[in-house]
Amino acid sequence: MQELNETIEAHIPRLRRYARALLGDHVRADDLVQDTLERACRKWRLWRRGSDLRAWLFTLMHNVFVNQVRTRKVAESWLPLHEQTEEPAARATQDDGLELRDLMSAIGRLPPEFREVVLLIGLEQLSYAEVAQVLNIPLGTVMSRLARGRERLRVLIAQANTPALRRVK
Amino acid sequence: MKPISENDLQAYVDARLDVGRRAEVEAYLARHPDTAERIAAYRRHNEMLHALLDPTLNEPIPEGMLPRHTRTAPMLLSRPWRYAAVLGWLLLGGIGGWTLHATHAAAGRDLSVRLAQPAAIAHAVYAAEVRHPVEVGVGQEAHLVSWLSKRLGQPLHTPNLTALGYQLIGGRLLPADNGPAAQFMYQDQRGRRLTLYVRTDKKDERETAFRFAQEDGISVFYWVDHSLGYALSGEINRAALLRVANAVYQQLNP
């Protein structure tokens, strides 16, 4: 027997993971998940039984996120607490730890519309069609934002690792 | 061969190409090292995202993630608290039993297996009966109730659902996994039938909120109250079944 409550509960970890990547801040991420769950409670009648519950929940989260960005409850881009001004000596060697930190910092610098697409596909592994549905945009726009988002991310990370070039300017 | 597009390259990053196309992309990347480096970076960043964030999946869900249902149902505060507790869960959209502890979740599934499933099966089996839907008819209602109460070892009552258009037509005795269970059958003017399945639940004597389950077109609202488990089954829409479930609950808890 399928129980709606158990199925939603099963999706909470992935909602938390996505929110964490989307907002960078553990506390605000869990707030976003909670706001999403409350919206799910209020709007459960809109979910058509048998349709994809995961996609529906991610759609709700997207809507809550967009709303909060618009009303400035969350910042458009975020700077993680560990962000610091560049110190060329510290970045002289490139190792995994640094690149991980650069990755999250760069994710935070992506415009929200790129960030969502890159994360929904790369991290949450939704299909391209599902992302189009969740974000309510055409498939072509998904692919375009994916390509541009990933490239922007790559450039941001590469720049973080070549401070010498930056200083030359 | 179709030319390699940026979409192909992205799909390659996400491992969403079929074998043939993947081979074509790999051949292309072998001839275009700059692109290959770019694509390799995208893959590496995906992997790093997972490395960094997948541990979140194993974290216990924070206590504070329970829905703040008191905010969505302020009007319930004036009603008796037990009834309010039941309705509170209902106003969460029937997401009863919203619990996040493993033991609770296990008990929830357990209750579904012990209560909702046998009720739905019994409904499916007997509600379709034309000649023998019940064992003892409503003409002998007093005897029916006294007989089933004696078998279950607890006083049972048949709720009066005439206000909602349902007449009791009778009941029967059923075997449950722990002993006898009772089924009361109701019918409306159109011949649609609801069944109220009752069983003893000494194993789990806490009171639960309404839970909802549905399978194969049979909807079930079920709950535990005073060491009896109840399950109301029907093939009507959820909102209508909920109205009846409320009526049943109210009558059994005057």
Structural commentary:
The complex is a heterodimer of chains A (about 170) and B (about 250). Chain A has eight helices and no strands. With about 170 residues, chain A is mainly alpha-helical. In chain A, helix 6 crosses helix 7 (about 140-160). The model of chain A is unreliable at about 80-95 and about 165-169 (pLDDT under 50). Chain B has about 250 residues and is α+β, with helices and mostly antiparallel strands. Chain B is built from eight helices and seven strands. Chain B has helices at about 5-15, 20-30, 35-55, 70, 80-90, 100-125, 140-150, 240-250; strands at about 135, 165-175, 180-185, 195-200, 210-215, 220-225, 230-235. In chain B, strands 1-2-3-4-7-6-5 form a seven-stranded antiparallel sheet, with helices on both faces. In chain B, helix 1 runs parallel beside helix 3 (about 35-55). The termini of chain B are far apart. Classes of the chains: A mainly alpha (about 170), B alpha+beta (about 250). Chains A and B meet through helix 1, helix 2, helix 4, helix 5 and helix 7 of A and helix 1, helix 3, helix 4, helix 6 and strand 5 of B.
* Strands of chain A, count: 0
Oligomer: heterodimer
Span of the ends, CA to CA of chain A = 65 Å
Rounded mean pLDDT of chain A is 80
Q: Give the N-terminus to C-terminus distance of chain B in angstroms.
A: 76 Å
Q: Percent helix among the residues of chain A?
A: 55-70%
Helicity level of chain B, as a percent range? Answer: 40-55%
- Strand-residue proportion of chain B: 15-25%
Largest sheet of chain A: none
Q: Strand pairing plus helix content of chain A: what structural class?
A: mainly alpha
Low-confidence stretches of chain B: 67-105
Strand order of the largest sheet of chain B: 1-2-3-4-7-6-5
Structural class of chain B: alpha+beta
* Distinct helical segment count of chain A: 8
User: What is the typical, i.e. mean, pLDDT of chain B?
Assistant: 81
Radius of gyration of chain A: 18 Å
- Per the principal axes of the C-alpha atoms, what is the gross shape of chain A? globular
Biggest β-sheet of chain B, characterized? 7 strands, antiparallel
Tally of separate helices of chain B: 8
* DSSP E strands of chain B, number: 7
In terms of DSSP E residues, the strand content of chain A is: under 5%
